Amino acid sequence: APDLAAAPPRPAAAAAPAATVVATAAPSSGRHLTTATWITGGASVALLAGGIVAGLAAKKQYDDLQALQASRGYLATWDSKQSSVRSLTTTANVMLGLGAVGAGVTGFLWWRSDRDQVAVAPIAGDGTVGLVAAGHF
Questions:
Q1: How far apart (Å, rounded) are the C-alpha atoms in residues 91 and 29?
Q2: CA dist 76 to 11, 21, 68, 80, Å?
Q3: What is the 8-class DSSP label of residue 4?
Q4: Would you state the pLDDT for residue 19?
Q5: Model pTM score
Q6: From CA 57, how far away is CA 53, in angstroms rounded?
Q7: What is the pLDDT of residues 103-123, one digit of tens each?
Q8: Are 25 and 116 in contact (CB under 8 A)?
């Protein structure tokens, strides 16, 4: 039978290691107006305002031509001014369309503003070139 009295004493249980604290990003402060949001918003407002002004100018020119319809030489006047009316109408439509797209982009940028930023950086090594992206996708 083994001699239990001669067995060496067991060492005391080792203290558990201290918990490792991992720093995490602070929670987002919510949606906010970033620089890009201000820029796209301002451009959108300018395009929409320009589109409205151009549209009103085109309407005025068209109405002026319509008022001359019964007058002598109307056809010559219409031929000389119709391209101006069409140009202004096209300009107004393009500006309004771009302003609407810009407003959508502004809304999207504002909606995404509560997310962490994504960082992208180029890398180069022995025969390797690429991009590294970090953040939340």
A1: 40
A2: 111, 83, 11, 6
A3: S
A4: 44
A5: 0.60
A6: 6
A7: 999 988 888 887 666 677 788
A8: yes
